[in-house]
Amino acid sequence: MANSNEEILAGLAEIVNEETGLATDAVQADKSFTDDLDIDSLSMMTIVTLAEEKFEVRIPDEEVKNLTTVGDAVAFIAQAQA
Amino acid sequence: MSKPTLAQRPTVAGSRLLSVGGVRGENLVPNDDIVGPINSSDEWIRQRTGIRSRARANGDTTVKDLAVGAAQDVLAKASLTGSDIGAVLVSTVTHFEQTPSLAAMVADAIGATPAAAYDISAACAGYCYGIAQADAMVRSGAAEHVLVIGVEKMSDFIDPTDRSISFLLGDGAGAAVVGPSDTPGIAPTVWGSDGGQAGAIYQTHSWLDYRRAELGEPVPTDTPELAEEVSQITSPTLRQQGPTVFKWVISSMPEIARRAVAAAGLELSDIDVFIPHQANMRITDQLLKLIDFREDVVVGRDIADTGNTSAASVPLATERLLREGQAHSGDIALQIGFGAGLVYAAQVVILP
């Protein structure tokens, strides 16, 4: 089932909070996973794996390096659900 | 005229682990001793892997020495001698002879000749593969007692300048003796492979390419990077796609673990001890989050001091839990190995 971009952002924020302890409102579309949120490659893979389950999409490993910002991830998930 | 009927061996009711033990490389090498060539730091390695030090063997200690040390430990613990062993299974990726097998040499060294002996190539899942085979051998009557060894001297195979996997790896041998039992002690193994992901953990180039380059013969290569690597006639070494492996483990192994528990006829709440392959503490922590064990489940965390010893890691982690009194004889343990192949195997066992 397709989610709105707002729902995807909120869901990602919950996952990031679970993995890193960052407050959910710190997870905004323009934030960079590495530079702003200080998420390393293994945490990123955890977030990707949990997002795949939550949103019922497949995010290929080679795609992960293109997901620089939270907004990139939201857009990819939205497109994958479409 | 009808054909004669073949005889088959009578089956044995049950099998179990009679002992688990092992030996580690003689030197505990702290992070500070290896960070130079990889431009890293103690803090970075601890944060990314949970590793403080790794066991590394002396230069003149051989993979056979480590395997024999583990064999002698488990034979003594089971009050058996080499002559009681009907089959020797050795899992390793660091026995650098195509033939003969390390298992045959170990069998001879411990006085188990003429036991059946062969090596297993299943990388970090190799010990759990070996336990699956030993269980089948004992219950089918193929051997009364089977010695299973996972052994690696990874320090002979690694590249000190590699940032992908080498700094994780340690040397050691873990082993178990599997024998007959009146009550079931080894539940069905859930195992498998995914060779489509062979590139996730891989050898830089084959020994055949190495030989061709050394002889000055043309080396067929798929990529310029590989051609460059081979042209330098460097000996092959290991690499991994760390994030890819991490994702595969946390997305696939929780289900394999749950299936192994179900195959044992148990609930997750019945599991007293969880002994995952010691790949990376972050992987262990994530598996614990994703599998609903009891809160008081005891977890193998030998990696912090010993490093990732590939095929040896599950039995060495088991040995440590038993020796330190964190786990006890009779406890119900779920063990799971996963690694290069990709391959995996999980089974529930009763600790000896």
TrEMBL record, chain A:
InterPro entries membership: ACP (IPR003231), ACP-like_sf (IPR036736), PP-bd_ACP (IPR009081)
PROSITE patterns: CARRIER
N-terminal signal peptide: none
Pathway this chain belongs to: Lipid metabolism; fatty acid biosynthesis
Keyword Lipid metabolism annotated: yes
Gene3D superfamilies, A to Z: ACP-like
Main localization of the protein described in the UniProt heading: cytoplasm
Modified residues (O-(pantetheine 4'-phosphoryl)serine): 41
Keywords from the UniProt entry: Cytoplasm, Fatty acid biosynthesis, Fatty acid metabolism, Lipid biosynthesis, Lipid metabolism, Phosphopantetheine, Phosphoprotein
Pfam families to which the protein is assigned, alphabetical: PP-binding
Record's GO cellular component terms: cytosol; membrane
GO biological process annotation, one example: lipid A biosynthetic process
Domain Carrier, first and last residues per copy: 3-81
Highest taxon of source: Bacteria
Places the protein is found: Cytoplasm
Gene Ontology molecular function, alphabetical: acyl binding; acyl carrier activity
PTM statement from Swiss-Prot or TrEMBL: 4'-phosphopantetheine is transferred from CoA to a specific serine of apo-ACP by AcpS. This modification is essential for activity because fatty acids are bound in thioester linkage to the sulfhydryl of the prosthetic group.
HAMAP family, A to Z: Acyl_carrier
Family membership noted in the UniProt record: Belongs to the acyl carrier protein (ACP) family.
Function: Carrier of the growing fatty acid chain in fatty acid biosynthesis.
Official protein name in the record: Acyl carrier protein
Organism: Ruania alkalisoli
